[in-house]
Amino acid sequence: VAMAMVGNLGKIAEAQVSKHERQKDGNYLYGAFGRDFITQDGRRIMVVALTLKQWKSLVKATGLHEGFETLEKMMGVDLTKEGDRFVAREVIGAMLKPWMGAHTVDEIRVIFDVHDVCWGPYQTFMELVEEDPRCSAENPMFEELEQPGIGTYLMPGSPLEFGGVERLPVRRAPLLGEHTEEILADVIGLSPTEIGRLHDDGVVAGPVAATA
Predict the structure, then answer these.
(1) Where are the beta strands (DSSP E) in the chain?
(2) Taking Cα atoms as reference points, which of 130, 120, 144 lies closest to residue 47?
(3) pTM over the 0.85 mark
(4) Treating both helix axes as pointing N-terminal to C-terminal, what angle do 65-75 and 52-62 enclose, rounded to 10 degrees?
(5) What are the extents of the domains in the chain?
(6) What's 80's DSSP letter?
(7) Pairing, β 44-49 against β 118-121
(8) I need a surface site. Which of 89, 125, 175, 210 has the fewest CB within 10 A?
(9) pLDDT tens, residue by residue, 113-168
């Protein structure tokens, strides 16, 4: 699975064809422009301008046309080319940083969505479960389950859904020892008397609920 994943990400081909190791580059997108920023209200977002359309949308949304034109002249780059945006990534990031820091994430959402900017907010797991409807019972993949000794929480089912197949309900995790007798009887073939003797001798035990 791991080899298939890195191969489909192009990592193997890059190493074989380019004959060089990709160096660490912070949180910048490799090959074009993309990096994270902190908003006025302390949220972290990721902004990407991989394609020409995405770059033009970002420039229009932030209103930094003149600044980027000056940058092109100073560095001798053409920011309509993704490779040149990568070359100038640190300067572009420095120019965008004050704009991002002057707006809240909600303000940025409105502006960027109107201009079709490629972006997205980072979320902590607490923010995910408290704010994102995709991680809630509104999403048919999730159900709220009661786990004995632990509490109630969201449990995901299969992310795949087929029109002709009914979605199976999610199930809680089994308790420790919950299926002991079933396995001893059905898999090993022990009789109730033999199973009882194992219990009496302390060799096996029944289900034990977790302590909260």
Answers:
(1) 33-38, 44-49, 118-121, 142-147, 151-156
(2) 120
(3) no
(4) 120
(5) 24-122, 127-156
(6) T
(7) antiparallel
(8) 125
(9) 999 999 999 888 888 888 888 889 899 888 888 888 778 888 888 888 888 888 88
- CA triplet 55, 104, 135: central angle to 5 degrees? 90
How does DSSP assign 23-48, residue by residue? PPBTBPPTTSEEEEEE-TTS-EEEEE
What is the Cα–Cα distance from 212 to 205, expressed in whole angstroms? 20
| CA distance to 39, 50, 102, 150, 199, per residue, from 121 (Å) | 10, 17, 16, 31, 54
As assigned by CATH, the class of the 24-122 domain is alpha beta
DSSP one-letter code for 170: P
What token pair was written down for 16? 């074989």
121 CB neighbour count, 10 Å cutoff: 16
Q: Is residue 138 helix, strand or coil? A: coil
Question: CB under 8 Å to 139, separation ≥6 — which residues?
Answer: 133
Instruction: Give 203's contacts (C-beta < 8 A, 6+ positions apart).
Output: none
**Calpha distance 48→33 (Å, rounded):** 6
For residue range 19-65, what is the model confidence (pLDDT) as tens digits? 777 665 667 888 899 999 999 999 999 999 999 999 999 999 999 99
